């Protein structure tokens, strides 16, 4: 599956934000921050990673619909997309 340029940029932005959040969480743990703050940040980074994954799957669905409308073979089957989606659930 190839990501379109807009989708690629958005996914990279989300992943870089998650990377920064993880770096921040490591710093929080090293400095002895309260576990409530750490868990809150872990939940935020988890949501950010989920959103990036869903964005990738949505891009794949869009590509499959366009390919099917053009009479081309689909790059991912419905079962493969469902398996990817459920892996994030």
Summarize this structure briefly:
This protein has 89 residues and is mainly alpha-helical. It is built from three helices and no strands.
3D architecture notes:
The protein is an all-alpha fold and 89 residues long. The chain has one domain (5-88): Up-down Bundle (Methane Monooxygenase Hydroxylase, Chain G, domain 1), CATH 1.20.58. Helices cover 81% and strands 0% of the residues. The chain is built from 3 helices and no strands. Helix 1 packs antiparallel against helix 2 (35-69) and helix 2 (35-69) packs antiparallel against helix 3 (78-88). It is elongated. The relative contact order is 0.14. The mean pLDDT is 83.
What is the terminal separation in angstroms?
A: 21 Å
Q: How confident overall, as mean pLDDT?
A: 83
Shape annotation: elongated
- Helical content class: over 70%
Structural category = mainly alpha
Task: Using brief descriptors, characterize the structure shown.
elongated, 89 residues, single chain, mainly alpha, Methane Monooxygenase Hydroxylase, Chain G, domain 1, 3 helices
What is the topology?
Blueprint: H1 5-30, H2 35-69, H3 78-88
Helix pairs in contact: 1-2, 2-3
């Amino acid at each position: 599956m190839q990501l379109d340029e807009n989708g690629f940029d958005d996914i990279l932005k989300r992943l870089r934000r998650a990377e920064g959040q993880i770096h921040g969480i490591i710093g929080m743990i090293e400095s002895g921050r309260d576990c409530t703050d750490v868990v809150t940040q872990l939940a935020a980074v988890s949501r950010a990673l989920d959103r990036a994954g869903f964005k990738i799957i949505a891009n794949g669905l869009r590509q499959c619909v366009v390919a099917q409308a053009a009479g081309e073979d689909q790059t991912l089957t419905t079962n493969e997309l469902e398996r990817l989606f459920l892996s994030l659930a």
